[in-house]
């Protein structure tokens, strides 16, 4: 038992797939997403949406670094498992204090510092584990040194933001997370983060998108609460399911082609696709999905409490249509950075979603949700026909 606990890390093979302990790790990430959505729904305002965006980015980085670690070694063995368990506890603390992290006034600094110190702790654990894993691999060790420099630098504005609070906190945390995320991209460009198992890497990112999509369905229950289920609520719930299915199929079609591209690439090119198309471009996909879930929750809450005008301000419409635009923009970036072939309609789709936002602002909540469903259904049908036409136009090889 002792030899197993202190054994060298077990490198993952090319054919490695996600393991149960990684899915278990994602449960804490799910808790974090729920806490962010709950926080934004309690005080829907432009500043709250920005605060939620920053916390989502912080959670995303927390998940991301351990997905890279799990691509290099099995994280359910020995000291790696112990370190990842500690990181899970840190993510849990981060998620727990999210609603208090943006409060101002006497006695609120403690919650902000708990969040920051827990985040720093999980990053330290990741850097230590990755350096241990990279023993003997000069390329990875050099990448870790570059990334550790930018990550450590980002902790300064993160701590200062927790101390000052208010507007300074938003600006300083935005700077910190930009440095942290940007450091990963720069270190990848200069040295490269090797993607040992492309199948594992692609599947881990697809699973986390599915987790985020599930938040839309959870938001139905959160919006309705214990109110009596009526006809409009049932219709809104079914429309939410339709929106979720459309978003899934739009992502799934892109993920299949991008996974093939990641698998066929090798060396530094594969590393760049992993860092840019997956680590970076997947964040707007996830964040947009969470904003859609927020809009769904607000629409359902209005129907459950029989509010006469449904959507009565900009915020629910921004969450629904702005979140969809962010999702579609992230998907277009994902395709552009992986397969380097994006159809014009995939670039136009986010713009159309934004153009529908002012219309959704003046519609009742149920009608706005119906408009979003119709838009996504038309987009899904259009892209399916486009793919079919492209396959039909391909020259058929003649039998010999």
Automatic annotation (TrEMBL):
<feature type="transmembrane region" description="Helical">
    <location>
        <begin position="314"/>
        <end position="334"/>
    </location>
</feature>
<dbReference type="Pfam" id="PF06772">
    <property type="entry name" value="LtrA"/>
</dbReference>
<feature type="transmembrane region" description="Helical">
    <location>
        <begin position="170"/>
        <end position="195"/>
    </location>
</feature>
<keyword id="KW-0472">Membrane</keyword>
<keyword id="KW-1133">Transmembrane helix</keyword>
<dbReference type="InterPro" id="IPR010640">
    <property type="entry name" value="Low_temperature_requirement_A"/>
</dbReference>
<feature type="transmembrane region" description="Helical">
    <location>
        <begin position="341"/>
        <end position="359"/>
    </location>
</feature>
<protein>
    <submittedName>
        <fullName>Low temperature requirement protein LtrA</fullName>
    </submittedName>
</protein>
<feature type="transmembrane region" description="Helical">
    <location>
        <begin position="207"/>
        <end position="226"/>
    </location>
</feature>
<feature type="transmembrane region" description="Helical">
    <location>
        <begin position="273"/>
        <end position="294"/>
    </location>
</feature>
<feature type="transmembrane region" description="Helical">
    <location>
        <begin position="365"/>
        <end position="382"/>
    </location>
</feature>
<feature type="transmembrane region" description="Helical">
    <location>
        <begin position="146"/>
        <end position="164"/>
    </location>
</feature>
<feature type="transmembrane region" description="Helical">
    <location>
        <begin position="20"/>
        <end position="41"/>
    </location>
</feature>
<keyword id="KW-0812">Transmembrane</keyword>
<feature type="transmembrane region" description="Helical">
    <location>
        <begin position="78"/>
        <end position="98"/>
    </location>
</feature>
<feature type="transmembrane region" description="Helical">
    <location>
        <begin position="113"/>
        <end position="134"/>
    </location>
</feature>
<feature type="transmembrane region" description="Helical">
    <location>
        <begin position="47"/>
        <end position="66"/>
    </location>
</feature>
<feature type="transmembrane region" description="Helical">
    <location>
        <begin position="232"/>
        <end position="252"/>
    </location>
</feature>
